């Protein structure tokens, strides 16, 4: 049924970069046989899942939505992919994203944008717009995303779906194409909190192949989503993430959701995190620095696109031609920014200062979590904007990441849950819940309570 829905809506939505119908059906048949033989897989055995095309999967090409990796087949599977398969989930295909996860609208994909199923003229958010749109268009019941500065949560908000960025280290990054390694985290996307929690449970947990993986028990996310009870919980509304610059319809729905949690028994207080004002500037130094370093491996020698390899060009020329053609404008902008920030003589002023500010932002969180169990805010200042509206204005695009970035910088858990549609335009609004590191269950607890 999901494959049929993909056939029906893909021409309009373009959520997927690759789908292999036969492979998916064959896998489904194998899982059926395993279940019939009494094998214990996972509670999600047999459920289809869409996977962001940033994860290595041997079954389909892995491109990171970049022309530089067009047609590349990974020789191995990401740990998350292995866990999905061991759990009996059936991978439907690879979903679209901003090139190397760099963007907030999926418009920087090298293979064309994804359209928001709520309004095909609008962006589905980014970078994980493909996974979110696939859920909203009922092309898949579950999806995998990655979140470096909001790429799971902001698309969830724009499409009225659920997305959770687990605690940094909670889900293995092994086999996930690196964007900014100290910020990247893989997580679940779904249409409700319980489904997301079930998927979280399947993919999370220690992996010795990821040196930043946490060797700690997975937080009790499924129980929390089932319990969905916020009685006695202390919830902090972040003063700095609201007010001027936020669409009235977003503020209205957010306020109603907070009132709903209060009516359900939570104690709501206002909390100030003054350093969040610097989070955007901090992120847009640290992320490009790490990205420029990670993307240096696309040197046209080891894998991917190779242009000018005709005996007439030097190694440097081949590299320059290949990177020049293979990378898109946004990725190039970030490589240049990051290379500059890391260069001798500037390193201390830019990267070094940003790292210090990152520590102060983490301290703001720590101080807030002394007073409350969870923090809440809108996910984004606006609802989904029109395709093309911000492509020529990177700063306006970056501003949309205001609310999601602090939790990546601090490595804490955060999720996006639908809280109705904006009275301004009838488009979905996302409610963000942030909890301390390894408090992922608290994120689901609040998110699930909103669904009641
Ligand atoms: N929108 C943010 C950016 O452009 C976040 C991307 C992400 O989380 N991968 O960097």
UniProtKB/TrEMBL annotation:
Domain Amidase: 1-443
EC number: 6.3.5.7
Catalytic residues in the record: 52 (charge relay system), 127 (charge relay system), 151 (acyl-ester intermediate)
Gene Ontology CC entries for this record: glutamyl-tRNA(Gln) amidotransferase complex
Source organism, top-level taxon: Bacteria
Signal peptide: none
Keyword field: ATP-binding, Ligase, Nucleotide-binding, Protein biosynthesis, Transferase
GO molecular function: ATP binding; glutaminyl-tRNA synthase (glutamine-hydrolyzing) activity; transferase activity
Reaction equation(s) it catalyzes: L-glutamyl-tRNA(Gln) + L-glutamine + ATP + H2O = L-glutaminyl-tRNA(Gln) + L-glutamate + ADP + phosphate + H(+)
GO biological process: translation
Gene3D superfamilies: Amidase signature (AS) domain
Family label: Belongs to the amidase family. GatA subfamily.
Known role: Allows the formation of correctly charged Gln-tRNA(Gln) through the transamidation of misacylated Glu-tRNA(Gln) in organisms which lack glutaminyl-tRNA synthetase. The reaction takes place in the presence of glutamine and ATP through an activated gamma-phospho-Glu-tRNA(Gln).
Alphabetical list of PANTHER family matching this protein: GLUTAMYL-TRNA(GLN) AMIDOTRANSFERASE SUBUNIT A (PTHR11895:SF151), TRANSAMIDASE (PTHR11895)
Record note on quaternary structure: Heterotrimer of A, B and C subunits.
Descriptive protein name: Glutamyl-tRNA(Gln) amidotransferase subunit A
Protein species of origin: Propionibacterium freudenreichii subsp. shermanii (strain ATCC 9614 / DSM 4902 / CIP 103027 / NCIMB 8099 / CIRM-BIA1)
